[in-house]
Amino acid sequence: MASYEIYSLLQAFPATTLAGYSKYLLYNGSENQWFEFEGSASISIEHFIHMASKHDLIKVISNTVA
Predict the structure, then answer these.
(1) Which residues pair with 63 in a beta bridge?
(2) What is the pLDDT of residue 6?
(3) Is 1 exposed, middle or buried (0-12, 13-18, 19+ CB in 10 A)?
(4) 54 has a pLDDT exceeding 60
(5) What is the DSSP letter of 2?
(6) Which strands form 33-37's sheet, in the order they lie side by side?
(7) Are the beta carbons of 37 and 52 closer than 8 angstroms?
């Protein structure tokens, strides 16, 4: 069985600092692979995040190391 995790970039830093980073990453835990998403795929991921949020299936992980 595959295991996937969606990570989103929080806009807590200035746009210049975040330049070059993808807004969304998908991690395949069973294959130890990372995938980047842009464009229309980002809209689909935002939908998944919204639905997960509605059902209390969101875990916020924050990295405060700058």
Answers:
(1) none
(2) 81
(3) exposed
(4) yes
(5) -
(6) 4-8, 24-28, 33-37
(7) no
Return the ∠ at Cα 43 (arms to 39 and 48), rounded to 5°.
140
- Domain segments of the chain: what residues? 1-9+22-60
pLDDT of residue 38: 75
Report DSSP letters for 5-52, one per residue. Answer: EEEE----S-HHHHTT--SEEEEETTTTEEEEE-THHHHHHHHHHHHH
Alpha-carbon dihedral 16, 34, 59, 1, rounded to 10 degrees:
170
Q: Tell me the two tokens of residue 6.
A: 């969606």
Q: Say if strands 4-8 and 24-28 run parallel, antiparallel, or are unpaired.
A: antiparallel
